[in-house]
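>> received
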Amino acid sequence: MPLLHDLTWLDYLAVSAFVSAWVGYSWYVDRSRASQRSITAVMRRYRLAWAREMGRRDVRIVDTQVVGNFLTGIGFFASTTILVIGGLFALLGAADKALAALSGLPLIQAPTAAAWEAKVLLLMAVFVYAFFKFAWAFRLSSYASILIGAMPMPGTDPEVLERYAQRIARMVQLVAHHQNHGFRAYFFAVALLTWFIHPALLLLSSAVVVAVLQRREFRSRALRALSDP
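>> returned
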């Protein structure tokens, strides 16, 4: 296949490093022991505290507004992702013009038409993945709003209220989980853009993205603010 034969060994190395960085970081932040020290883990505790406080309130307008903010933000990114995918489809059809523009730029390794298509298709796959994550997070947000509406009023058996609080917290955590994976896809898509310039830059940018994400997840000022007694 031309899509495969027109790529160099450095392209394959860069893409392998890119995929390994993404998968490895996702495992590290979601499933490793270190994940318990992340900002995601701290926010998990705050979500449970929010759900418990909700059970003590007669009026839950604020709680529905919080879920409405989820829906607004996730819907925005889902819509934007669709536009990006459409733009990438158009880019496939304008390969000749794009290659001509790249060949005139200094220090840029202009790919063949087949290699260009492979790069665009991989970038498109990243955004398709992001769209599915945002779309599912949007649907889960609507489920969370229903759970809030179904939560018993104050004065109900405390054990029943606690079960509902745990259930709502888990649902909202799932929303955040899929939303975070969608955001992560955007970060790695930025790294993948550098592949259009040179595969060596993809190696470098993949490492930079992992370093930025790791710092924001484990060593950010936001984490210190949330952890401050």
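>> The two ends are 59 Å apart (CA to CA).
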